[in-house]
UniProtKB/TrEMBL annotation:
<dbReference type="InterPro" id="IPR014352">
    <property type="entry name" value="FERM/acyl-CoA-bd_prot_sf"/>
</dbReference>
<keyword id="KW-0446">Lipid-binding</keyword>
<dbReference type="Pfam" id="PF00887">
    <property type="entry name" value="ACBP"/>
</dbReference>
<feature type="domain" description="ACB">
    <location>
        <begin position="3"/>
        <end position="85"/>
    </location>
</feature>
<dbReference type="InterPro" id="IPR035984">
    <property type="entry name" value="Acyl-CoA-binding_sf"/>
</dbReference>
<protein>
    <submittedName>
        <fullName>Acyl-CoA-binding protein</fullName>
    </submittedName>
</protein>
<dbReference type="InterPro" id="IPR000582">
    <property type="entry name" value="Acyl-CoA-binding_protein"/>
</dbReference>
Length: 85
């Protein structure tokens, strides 16, 4: 199966995990997904200082700057596979 197909399957599988991952893991999944689908962060950080959730998401995605889409996809697949046990 090609990486893109594995990535799409992992994205679907991530919605059916038996246990909800902790916030740190959710941020990791989010940032790897965004990097894998869109590449480097392409939005401005939230301007509302109290928008902690979107600020954390933006920061997590920004931390992956320079990582190739393919590498992010593979890490996402590996992480979801690990979470599925």
């Amino acid at each position: 199966m090609a990486l893109k197909e594995l990535f799409e399957k992992a994205a679907a599988d991530s919605k059916t995990l038996s246990e909800k991952p902790d916030n740190e893991m959710l941020l990791q999944l989010y940032s790897l997904y965004k990097q894998g689908t869109e590449g480097d962060v392409n939005t401005e950080p939230p301007s509302n200082p109290f928008d902690f959730v979107n600020k954390a998401k933006h920061e997590a995605w920004s931390n992956l700057k320079g990582k190739s889409k393919e590498a992010a996809m593979q890490e996402y697949v590996d992480l979801v596979t690990k979470l599925m046990g």
